[in-house]
């Protein structure tokens, strides 16, 4: 059974499953938000590819040979990206709830082009 087949929900992954897959290299995590949104806070392993530029990047994603998970703020734009990628023959999933759910899950984020990580809501404060 493949990594993504362990997660159900009409082609969706939980933020925790997407984070685990991106961290261990099982999948490619692509953030389809605009540049300002991405630099304000994104998943540490995410590649930035705004939705408007996705069509030009699909061949490169297909060449990766790994499943792709798309994320945006709430899951709407990434759902569109997922459909577009699937139509191009890519094994693609949507991160359910987007970065809003990612933050609620307490998962780490990075700012800028990968700078210091901010703690998620559930992480204990540093001492």
TrEMBL record:
So which domain of life are we looking at?
Bacteria
- UniProt xrefs under InterPro entries: GlpE_sulfurtransferase (IPR050229), Rhodanese-like_dom (IPR001763), Rhodanese-like_dom_sf (IPR036873)
Q: Which Gene3D superfamilies match?
A: Rhodanese-like domain
Q: Where is this region: Disordered?
A: 101-127
For this protein, the record's PROSITE patterns field holds: RHODANESE_3 (PS50206)
Q: Which residues form the Rhodanese domain?
A: 23-111
PANTHER family, sorted = FAD-DEPENDENT OXIDOREDUCTASE, PYRIDINE NUCLEOTIDE-DISULPHIDE OXIDOREDUCTASE
Could you identify this protein by its name? Answer: Rhodanese-like domain-containing protein
Q: Organism source for this protein?
A: Paraconexibacter antarcticus
């Amino acid at each position: 059974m493949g990594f993504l087949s362990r997660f159900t929900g009409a082609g969706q992954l939980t933020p925790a499953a997407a984070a685990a897959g991106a961290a261990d290299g099982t999948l490619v995590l692509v953030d389809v938000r605009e540049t300002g949104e991405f630099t304000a806070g994104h998943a540490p392993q995410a590649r930035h590819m705004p939705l408007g530029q996705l069509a030009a990047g699909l061949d490169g994603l297909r060449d990766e040979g790994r499943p792709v998970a798309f994320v945006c703020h709430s899951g709407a734009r990434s759902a569109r990206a997922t459909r577009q990628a699937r139509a191009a023959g890519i094994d693609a999933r949507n991160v359910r709830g987007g970065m809003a759910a990612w933050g609620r899950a307490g998962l780490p984020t990075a700012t800028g082009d990968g700078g210091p990580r901010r703690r998620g809501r559930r992480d204990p404060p540093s001492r």
